[in-house]
Amino acid sequence: MTRSTFLFISARAGAFAGVLAIAITACGDKQPAPAADSTGATSTASTTDTVKVQGVWSDSVTAKSQYVAEYVNGKLVVIEEQMLLADSTTSTRAYFYSTEYALTRLVEDRALTAASSNSTPTTLRSILNIYLTGNTVDSATKLVDSVAKTVQPYEIDNMRRHEREIFARVATTYTAPRTDR
Fold first, then answer.
1. What is the pTM of this model?
2. β-strand partners of 132
3. pLDDT per position as a tens digit, 54-84
4. Of these four, 88, 159, 164, 181, which has the most CB atoms within 10 Å of its CB?
């Protein structure tokens, strides 16, 4: 074994031992939280009242999605989602809920591709904010490259429809394993 190979193996072993030590220290004697659903979800429990459950979802045609559902005191408060769309653009969405699990706010930060017939495609940034009370939209704003635009009714409908798809995959309550002794 040459000196450089030995140093490489030693460095990798040392790095692995360091990561393992950090993982053992961070986990202590806690048991891992169970998966929340059958769509590939995993959870991370801490000694606080906040639990995050991760999941994946895809309609196999238009989007692939990874989401994190966050629970405070066992109740769902927000779902954050990262999507990769069929045109290779991305979308980050957040869905906020009241204590009765009613949707109160939708936020989307999305990359859009725009082009005319004689120009090179350009990527634009769109930020959509929708505030709701029950089924009523209180306000909706949209910025495209920092310029205010009119929010179209179909944009609100699409966001709400997709929220229902994700919401159906997430439990509204979650009981974290006890971590206090």
1. 0.67
2. 137
3. 998 887 677 788 999 999 988 999 999 998 8
4. 159
